Amino acid sequence: MDLVRKYLLVGLLWGIILGYGAVAIATGLGVTVLFLIVYGEGPWGEGTGTLLYGLAIAGFTAAVLICSTVGYLFGRRMQSLSLEASELAIEHRRAHILIATAIVAAFLGAYQLYAQHTALTVRQGYLEQMLDARQTVADVRATHRRDGRGIDIALITRGERAGMHALELLVRDSEDRLLERQRHELELPDREAYRVLTVDYADLIRAVVEREYRGQEPVVHRGTLSVIARLAPLLEPQELRTLPRHAATHYLAPDSPFYSERRFDYPIEFRFEEGRHWVVVEGERHPVAR
């Protein structure tokens, strides 16, 4: 095989290797441009996947063509020189070394991709197992406390994973404004568990007066509260190391799949009479404990 063909082969092999890097660069730039200029935080178009695949193919093809062309031109130039036998032998050996290096690099790269894919598959499988075993909020109920203090929120949790969990309780008004937020750390067993949390009427009424009436006491207020209970595990360090990196970093993010959420609406009516607040429950008036 003459130098032209050998250096063409060198360029082709290195073009294939570098093409994988070109794929990452092309798709990464494509995603960046689409996010910053076209879609932003809104929904992405249905043709986004096709566009990114096209950029990947274009990047890979460009890398192969450029490297092959450079190899061909270099081999033709070396072939056209009047080299002595010893110099020609050195050039052939150099081409052989470049071919062998490309083959070794390709094998190492393929092994690395295989190892990464295997590790990702194992981590993804572990994530799915954890999600299947996670504790969920099975039921939520609300009852008025007869002592007038507030609302008892009874939660039933169920799941196979025992350990520490973060429970977040949110109360919002009909305009989705946050009235109260509670966060509790609970140790849950690997079976059904029952917990009761209390939302004080005084805190709710104070928040409603501030947000809806700008601090002016209303005579009567009727509305609906949205109560949201959200539960997520507090993962141990060894569990985080086993999860996929994105899942481990954002497992308590608002869109985390680890969260279990229940939401229900609770009608509320309170009055300001006789210098104090009263809560009306099923037609009966109850004084709010101070």
The structural domain count equals: 2
What separation lies between the terminal Cα atoms? 96 Å
Content of β-strand: 25-35%
Give average pLDDT, whole number. 86
For the CA atoms, what is the radius of gyration?
33 Å
Structural class: alpha+beta
Low-confidence stretches: none
The number of helical segments is 6
Strand order of the largest sheet: 4-3-6-7-8-9
Please report the total strand number as a whole number: 9
Elements, N to C (H/E): HHHEEEEEHEHHEEE
Largest sheet: 6 strands, antiparallel
Bulk shape: elongated
Give the helix level as a range of percent: 40-55%
Present the secondary structure layout.
Elements: H1 3-39, H2 48-80, H3 85-133, E1 136-144, E2 150-158, E3 163-172, E4 178-188, E5 193-200, H4 201-212, E6 220-233, H5 237-242, H6 245-249, E7 260-273, E8 276-281, E9 284-287
Provide a descriptive summary of the structure in words.
- The chain is of the alpha+beta class.
- The protein folds into 2 domains: 3-38 and 46-80 and 88-132, no CATH class; 164-186 and 198-287, no CATH class.
- Helices cover 49% and strands 29% of the residues.
- It is built from 6 helices and 9 strands; from the N terminus they run αααβββββαβααβββ.
- It has helices at residues 3-39, 48-80, 85-133, 201-212, 237-242, 245-249, and strands at residues 136-144, 150-158, 163-172, 178-188, 193-200, 220-233, 260-273, 276-281, 284-287.
- Strands 4-3-6-7-8-9 form a 6-stranded antiparallel β-sheet.
- A hairpin with a 5-residue loop joins strand 1 and strand 2 (150-158).
- The termini are far apart.
- The chain crosses the membrane at residues 12-39, 51-74, 95-114.
- Keywords: Membrane, Transmembrane, Transmembrane helix.
